[in-house]
């Protein structure tokens, strides 16, 4: 990659999540005067409104040159090319990615621009891997989706657990249990969930997953594949198998390890509510008219959990997430193939997942990529998972500095 006008461009900066991303980036780079960045989107007026919000929240920007604005539209390929050629790293916050993602990925790959996004749409992520991995490697571009709550906490929680094994040890199985304490989300996130109920998307997910997945790995002590909620005594919660992007990406990031991702809830009452929503999603999500109905009335179908207004500042201040990871394997790799004899259990605590933790994860990843681009150039290239892309970087350390708390609950013989 040659010299670029900007280190980072945030595309979709005027969207609901995009505004939180640019505010987090603006705070972060106040102490980095040499970092060049810009806001991007299709509406100049909306982008200027975002800039005004940044100045209001961070008065230091009132005495600095205005943050540059780049106009680009996913339906205008030349505008995307003009944008991607100006950046080292492009952060794409324009979803649903099924509709708006691929043109941006294609442009970044073509021009050797590093690309990060925050989608949790598994079919989109896997399709981009299958279509663009070789081209991205050839162009020297790093393309990583799911750099928000989907799926960074799952990936880094598993990586942290693996790092607690003895030097000669080896992980054989990894289970991540995801949990959130948050009552509200934005309608766009909900729309992505509804779109994933489309049978053609599920078929596409399976097809592209088969194209990119490593060979299946079995151990002498297989993991549970529980599709219904059941009580997990290890954490004292009700948990069920999670079918979202985290499950696919965790396996892709850990070849040779049997993996499973579960979603847990605090109380049995939530099990009933989720079962009712799952029933509605199953009844209406299989056909286009049903999906349109679900998308049109997010608050009604989710009992107020998702709205077009999104969460308030007070709601975000009190929300959080907690993940657990239980990794089992061998104290000494020489014993691999026998009974598993070592177990590590860790915990990851973080802030509100969608609009606090997600910007933190995306911004810190972008800064890691920028630093790598101007110095060592040791990050891998291609269309990769978060775990594979940042495995040998200081990404986890940066997340810890931003307030994500990793703790070891236990480590020792099984």
TrEMBL record:
Residues 8-144 form the Saccharopine dehydrogenase NADP binding domain. GO terms for biological process: glycolipid biosynthetic process. It comes from the Eukaryota. One of its GO terms (cellular component) is plasma membrane. The chain crosses the membrane at residues 268-287. Keywords: Membrane, Transmembrane, Transmembrane helix. Pfam families: Sacchrp_dh_NADP. Belongs to the saccharopine dehydrogenase family. This is Saccharopine dehydrogenase. It comes from Saprolegnia diclina (strain VS20).
